[in-house]
Amino acid sequence: MKAVAVSKFKDIPTVMDLPKPAVRPGTVLIKVAAAGINPFDWKMVDGIMDGAMPHQFPLIMGVDGAGTVDEVGEGVTRFKKGDKVYGQFIHAPIGEGSYAEYAIVPEKSGLTLAPSSLSAAEAAAVPTSGMTAQQMLDHLNLQEGDTLLVVGATGGVGSFTVQLAKLQGIHVIATVGDDAAAERMKKLGATVTINYKAAPLAQQVKAKYPGGVDGLIDVASDGAGFTANLDLVRPGGGALTTVFVADEAALKARSIHGGNFETKGSAASLDTLSLIIDRGELQVPVENKIRLEDVPEAIALSRQAKGKGKTVIII
């Protein structure tokens, strides 16, 4: 089968011809239809999980995926052949990922039946980004009418955050870089958009919300940027970053709760998202559809933070 993999840590991803995985007890073999790209995928190539989980090489990349169950292993009860599924394919050993024509996934991982209203490409865009947005909002515990500033709103996590917050009656302020992005964010539910290229973000937010916002979700800023953005949050508010750059002392000094946030994937979390999606209350933002052959270039763009919107690999 064809797969995008690396032969060692920090290697450049390439399309390889690799053996089709054999199903094991407690696992399902999935014929992958689509895989979602996330920055965490190349961070695993760089060894972010080295020492925490076993790895195997060639290491097939990819966490998010969607497809059809092709075969079930001994003891599997949750799925049967032919089921349409989606979720996070990550498990031990690292290296049996979703950037492949076939993938083997434990039944008890973050895998569940796919929303009936989505295509495979749309479903593959949901797991990590959708669960991250959902769980960050749960963690902030904002109330109806509260204000939430989303920095990095136009990406996958940001787009889900804007929509899910809107469903909770939260007043969403989304950062954008141009008029087209502003229009898209308004359609997704942002109450206000702020073009960070027009004037400094802090200046614009303070002019509109002099008392500070209730919550901050920042999926884009470096350490200095995140710390600076804390000044936009009222004392007692909450602030989260997915980039792991939070200064705990800076948060404490401002009486702000939150900090670095790590998603905990689960089938139950995905099932909640599926219900919202199938009710027609959540749009899935797929901006780019590429082939396996295009993945190395897409990963390079992601590393440089030059990727635009959610990218999905059609397999």
Q: Could you describe the largest sheet, including whether it forms a barrel?
A: 7 strands, mixed
Tell me the quaternary state.
Answer: single chain
CATH architecture of the largest domain: Alpha-Beta Complex
CATH topology of the largest domain: Quinone Oxidoreductase, Chain A, domain 1
Poorly predicted sequence stretches spanning 5 or more consecutive residues: none
Strand proportion: 25-35%
How much is the average pLDDT?
A: 96
Structural Rg: 20 Å
Considering DSSP H and I runs of 4 or more, what fraction of the residues is helical? Answer: 25-40%
Number of helices: 10
Globally, the shape reads: globular
CATH H-level homologous superfamily name of the largest domain: Medium-chain alcohol dehydrogenases, catalytic domain
CATH class of the largest domain: Alpha Beta
Order of helices and strands: EEEHEEEEEEHHEHEHEHEHEHEHEHE
Total domains: 2
What is the CA-CA span between the terminal residues?
11 Å
Structural class estimated from helices and strands: alpha/beta
The tally of strands reads 17
Tell me briefly what this model is.
The chain has 315 residues and is of the alpha/beta class. The chain has helices at residues 39-45, 120-124, 127-140, 156-167, 179-188, 201-208, 223-229, 248-253, 267-278, 295-303; strands spanning 2-6, 14-17, 27-36, 55-60, 64-72, 84-88, 94-96, 102-106, 111-113, 147-151, 171-176, 192-195, 213-218, 233-241, 257-260, 286-290, 310-314. The chain folds into two domains: 2-126 and 284-314, Medium-chain alcohol dehydrogenases, catalytic domain (Quinone Oxidoreductase, Chain A, domain 1, Alpha-Beta Complex); 128-260, NAD(P)-binding Rossmann-like Domain (Rossmann fold, 3-Layer(aba) Sandwich), CATH 3.40.50.
